[in-house]
Amino acid sequence: MKTPPKSFDEIFEKISPNLQLLEEVRKNRAKDILLWEILGITSLALIFLVFNLGLYFLGAIIILFILYCVGMVFEKLDVATKDLAPKFKKTVILALLDYFYDHVEYIPNQRMSIHLLNKSLLIRKFVYKHWGEDFITCRIGHTDVYFSEIETFHLNQQKSTFRGVFIAVMFNKQFSTKTVVINRKDSTLFRKAKLNLFGDMKKANYVKLESIEFNKNFLVIAEDQIEARFKLTPALMEMMLAYKKKLNTTVSFSFIENYLYITIQSDKNLFEPRLLKPLNDKKFIENNYLYLDLLTTVVKDLDLNTRIWL
Predict the structure, then answer these.
(1) pTM for the model
(2) HSE of 291 in the Cβ direction (CA atoms, 13 Å)?
(3) Which residues cross the membrane (predicted)?
(4) Four-residue CA torsion sign, 65, 70, 75, 80
(5) 132 lies in a domain?
(6) What is the pLDDT of residue 176?
(7) Of 24, 181, 196, 294, which sees the most CB atoms within 10 A?
(8) What's the pLDDT tens digit per position in 228-283?
(9) What pLDDT does residue 109 have?
(10) Which of 284, 265, 282 is CA-nearest to residue 273?
(11) Nearest CA to 273 among 2, 30, 35?
């Protein structure tokens, strides 16, 4: 792993010149959007006067113009997003990743493989289709980490079965059996039965661990209770609880073959620029840095470079 910076200030100072150029682009795009908003609002105020004077034909024309203004606002927003998003991701997100980690690859329009999503056993229903972006790979120590934003769907259902960040951590050694650690809020009565019924796990059983706090937060289902307890040591359980608390959302884990999978529920559209507020605002960039750092430090938080697996 690369030597981390002494402070966020050092990173911000490094990318500030590029941020200033990006902010100029944002300002120009924002002016276009604001112009059509002002025209629409002004026309809306004018329409009341026109109708009071009985000028209905003119009023109809103004209504059509207002609708045109609304359409232009959405069009300008779409154009601005398509223009700013790639530049922001290259200027900010990729720069942050490169500053910390080795072998970084960032593909904004790519998503995690549907095969890995189903293989993880963490999505409540089988994934038939999915949407995603911001696919990132990097190496932390000797461990390869992959993650992206994901939204999954079952068959033709309109409501997604999962939305958030999906992380896959690949090891050189394989786990002998499968272990799934599901957040209690995301568990269902028939989860174990379904894993057995569809052959996803062999003789899946609930595992009750020594940690009362861990059992309150997570439901453990495993093929082998002894190996599950070997993996989920008291130290690792504490790390998982701390990781969940740090993220302040629903988090689940699974240990399958040579992967640790993690799902983090989130409704945020991550790593995107904002259009109506300054992009070179230090606090805004720091929020991106903190969330990105939180995701990519999973290896450090769970001590995955030093643990010895079966």
Answers:
(1) 0.79
(2) 19
(3) 33-51, 57-74
(4) positive
(5) yes
(6) 86
(7) 181
(8) 988 888 888 988 898 888 888 889 999 998 889 999 998 877 778 888 889 899 88
(9) 85
(10) 284
(11) 30
Distance CA 76, CA 80 (A): 6
Pair (236, 175) in one structural domain: yes
CB atoms within 10 A of CB 207: 20
What total of structural domains would you count in the chain? 2
pLDDT at 253: 93
Q: Which residue has the tokens 């009341």?
A: 48
Q: Are 178 and 194 in contact (CB under 8 A)?
A: no
- 283 and 200 in a single domain? The answer is yes
Q: Provide the residue range defining the domain that includes 202.
A: 104-301
Confidence check: pLDDT of 4 > 70: no
Collect all residues with Cβ–Cβ distance below 8 Å to 96 and sequence separation of at least 6.
11, 288, 289, 292, 293
Q: Vertex 250, ends 246 and 254: CA angle to 5°?
A: 100
Task: Decide if 310 is inside a domain.
Answer: no
Q: DSSP letter string over the chain?
A: -PPPPS-HHHHHHHHHHHHHHHHHHHHHHHHHHHHHHHHHHHHHHHHHHHHHTT-HHHHHHHHHHHHHHHHHHHHHHHHHHHHHHHHHIIIIIHHHHHHH-EEEEEETT----HHHHHHTT-SSS--SEEEEEEEEEEEETTEEEEEEEEEEE-TT-SS-SEEEEEEEEE-SS--SS-EEEEEGGG--TTHHHHHHHTTSSSS-EEE--S-HHHHHHEEEEES-HHHHHHHS-HHHHHHHHHHHHHHTS-EEEEEETTEEEEEEE----TT---SSS-TT-HHHHHHHHHHHHHHHTHHHHTTTTT----
User: What pLDDT score does 198 carry?
Assistant: 61
- Categorize the per-residue pLDDT at 9 as very low, low, confident or very high, splitting at 50, 70 and 90: confident
Which has the closest alpha carbon to 268: 254, 247, 286, 253? Answer: 247
- Residue that finishes a domain, picked among 54, 85, 100: 100
